[in-house]
Design a protein that fits this description.
Layout (H helix, E strand, L loop, with lengths): L2 E5 L5 E2 L1 H11 L4 E5 L10 H13 L4 E6 L6 H13 L3 E4 L12 H10 L2 E4 L9 H10 L5 E3 L10 H5 L5 E4 L5 H11 L4 E2 L9 H11 L3 H16 L1 E2 L2 E2 L2
Parallel strand pairs: 1-3, 3-4, 4-5, 5-6, 6-7, 7-8, 8-9
Antiparallel strand pairs: 1-2, 10-11
Helix pairs in contact: 3-4
């Protein structure tokens, strides 16, 4: 879960061949992929979304394509989300900080995502508009959506279990999070909704795999985090299995 292609606004770049090399090194067979915050895209992410879908079509069974939209754009974002869903994207990535929107501005996108049966990945951290507690009302309102929040909320990790512990439609990736914070979340939230993510190219499968192996000593626990929970998150929507 949680990988990008493209050139980020901070200069970090990932090509498809880079991702495949990292996946091979880390023993990863299948990945969820979406665009990075490429500032060259201008309004929307249309061409970047198309590149992700083309990669999935060229490598069937290896890539699960998710699109990216900018909710603050309003109707154009809804049009792009619908277009992507019709073409084969299985979910959408929302990044409140990079794409400069508040949770409230994403309401229309979430309504449409629920209607279309899309999964929703949300960047979370301590900054305003990114905190899991700010998104909790939407997790509660849109029970038909499977949400994935990234990085375990970063600096809000200590209260994450209090915010989403009662919500069975929210999963968590702990990419680029320290071993201590990752372990804390697992201990307090449990393992059933933790999914393995790398945030490539910002981290690498080898690093994230080793972190989880050091924390999880039982084979069954590793299986849950490395792939079974991801299968539950992707799951079945309106009779269509997303894999």
């Amino acid at each position: 879960m949680h990988n990008h292609i493209g050139r980020s606004g901070d200069g970090c770049e990932s090509r498809l061949e880079d991702l495949f090399r990292a996946m091979e090194a880390g023993g990863v067979d299948r990945t969820v992929l979406f665009p990075v915050d490429d500032k060259a895209e201008g309004a929307g992410y249309r061409s970047a979304n198309d590149r992700v879908l083309e990669a999935a079509q060229q490598h069937p069974g290896k890539i699960i394509p998710f699109c990216r939209v900018k909710p603050a754009e309003g109707e154009p974002a809804l049009q792009e989300l619908r277009r992507c869903a019709e073409r084969g994207h299985r979910g959408v990535k929302l990044h409140p900080r990079s794409d400069e929107f508040s949770p409230g501005q994403a309401h229309g996108v979430l309504e449409l995502a629920q209607e279309l049966g899309l999964r929703v990945v949300i960047h979370t951290e301590k900054e305003e508009n990114c905190r899991p507690d700010e998104w909790r009302p939407f997790f509660e309102e849109f029970q038909g959506i499977h949400f994935l929040i990234t990085h375990g909320g970063k600096g809000t990790y200590r209260t994450l279990h209090e915010v989403i512990g009662h919500l069975r439609n929210v999963w968590v990736d702990t990419s680029v999070l320290s071993m201590f914070r990752t372990s804390f979340i697992m201990q307090h939230l449990g393992l059933d909704r933790i999914v393995y993510g790398t945030d490539f190219p910002y981290s690498h499968p080898l690093l994230e795999t080793k972190k989880h192996e050091l924390i999880l000593s039982e084979a069954d626990d590793r299986d849950r985090v490395f792939y079974r929970n991801a299968l539950d998150f992707l799951g079945e929507v309106k009779g269509a299995f997303l894999l």
